Amino acid sequence: MYYVIQALEGIKNKHFVSYSVHKYKSSKKNNTIIFEFGAKPNIKRKWAAKDEIILLTQDKQYFLSFLKKLKSTEESYLKKIDEHEQKIEALFLELKDEMHTQFSNMKNDKNIPSLLKDI
Questions:
Q1: Do the domain assignments include residue 65?
Q2: How far is residue 21's CA from residue 55's CA, in Å, rounded to a whole number?
Q3: How many structural domains comprise the chain?
Q4: Which domain holds residue 85?
Q5: SS3 category, 109
Q6: What does DSSP assign to residue 116?
Q7: How confident is the model at residue 117 (pLDDT cuts 50, 70, 90)?
Q8: Considering the domain boundaries, does residue 119 fall inside one?
Q9: Is the pLDDT reported for residue 77 higher than 80?
Q10: Quick check: 34 and 2 in contact, CB under 8 A?
Q11: Would you list the DSSP string of 11-66?
């Protein structure tokens, strides 16, 4: 059995996937690795760019320990990101309230030269 960790790009909250395969095919002339899942006659193949593969090993214990470290790092940063997103959302709400207050003050101020009062 082979164990694989593959980097993902462009996905906000997911940075890697991990899986096990029975067989893989690769060539120095090609930039992809073909991973085979399942058994005959239902073999499924998945192509992956070599530079996306972070780990390809037969050492299950190393795979699991490295995977645990990656998950811990990802969870830690996603928690921090979530906390900051909540703070940003609160700031947007504060901005919205402040802007509505400013708009209201402007509309109700008799000293502002606005043509809206006459229409």
A1: yes
A2: 13
A3: 1
A4: 2-108
A5: coil
A6: G
A7: low
A8: no
A9: yes
A10: no
A11: -TT--EEEEEESEEEE-TT-SEEEEEES-TTS-EEEEEEGGGEEEEES-HHHHHHH
What one-letter code names the amino acid at 78? L
Counted residue by residue, the chain has a size of 119
Q: How many CB atoms lie within 10 A of CB 33?
A: 20
The rounded distance, in Å, linking the Cα atoms of 103 and 109 is 10
**Pairwise CA distance, residues 69 & 116, whole Å:** 62
**Residue 78 domain flag:** yes
| Cβ neighbours, 10 Å, residue 66 | 17
Going by C-beta distance under 8 Å and a sequence separation of 6 or more, which residues neighbour residue 62? none
pTM tops 0.90? no
Whether 117 maps to a domain, the answer reads: no
